């Protein structure tokens, strides 16, 4: 329960969590920040950890305090830590996917990683290549799954690593400096929880949009399936009817030829007379008739 409570407090208010770490010293604070960012990126089972908001809050503590003029976290120490954590995490997650990914998927321990989502993500990697690794860094959940699936899909390490490093450095620097430059503004200080919620919503918006588009496309595909089936079936049915008609015509033609060929054979036993035979018979009959008739 202690670990779960720790995660809930971290998700709810990362600034308060970092403040409690600072009370233990700078080194433990940097260690906790490194660990959280590394686990979110490097362990496929923890995609829900607050990477964006944690970096923003850490950047706030790196800025000089308005009262004392001192910073709770030195920026020159914070930046190398937040640079190293996502880069090393990506490498760890890539090799986990490369060597154990298929077994993890088949075990079903990662409920969000279904075979269908795996196939779609691999298709995206095939389409966009290593650029998907860089872009995926800026989206929660996706930045956890992307190196894992890159390892499963067989993407070469030398192609994966440059875009992974570039994405990790850009992402960590961006959110840390946003907190550093804007975290000290009074409006942000007074509404820090709302700012964190806004960061989460902005980060999750592309994911939600992608899910909606995927569901809409699936529904459209299901609706178009009967029409496609009918379009595919109609030509085959027409071809079948045409074949049957052609077969009937062929049968009729064959029967006609057969009958035409049988006609001489059927009449071969009949008395078929030529014109000369008919004339000779007529003369003979006339002669017989004249002989049979009595003369007066």
Automatic annotation (TrEMBL):
<feature type="transmembrane region" description="Helical">
    <location>
        <begin position="160"/>
        <end position="182"/>
    </location>
</feature>
<keyword id="KW-0472">Membrane</keyword>
<keyword id="KW-1133">Transmembrane helix</keyword>
<protein>
    <submittedName>
        <fullName>SNARE associated Golgi protein</fullName>
    </submittedName>
</protein>
<comment type="similarity">
    <text>Belongs to the DedA family.</text>
</comment>
<keyword id="KW-1003">Cell membrane</keyword>
<dbReference type="InterPro" id="IPR032816">
    <property type="entry name" value="VTT_dom"/>
</dbReference>
<keyword id="KW-0812">Transmembrane</keyword>
<feature type="domain" description="VTT">
    <location>
        <begin position="49"/>
        <end position="180"/>
    </location>
</feature>
<dbReference type="GO" id="GO:0005886">
    <property type="term" value="C:plasma membrane"/>
</dbReference>
<dbReference type="Pfam" id="PF09335">
    <property type="entry name" value="VTT_dom"/>
</dbReference>
<feature type="transmembrane region" description="Helical">
    <location>
        <begin position="194"/>
        <end position="212"/>
    </location>
</feature>
<dbReference type="InterPro" id="IPR032818">
    <property type="entry name" value="DedA-like"/>
</dbReference>
<feature type="transmembrane region" description="Helical">
    <location>
        <begin position="21"/>
        <end position="46"/>
    </location>
</feature>
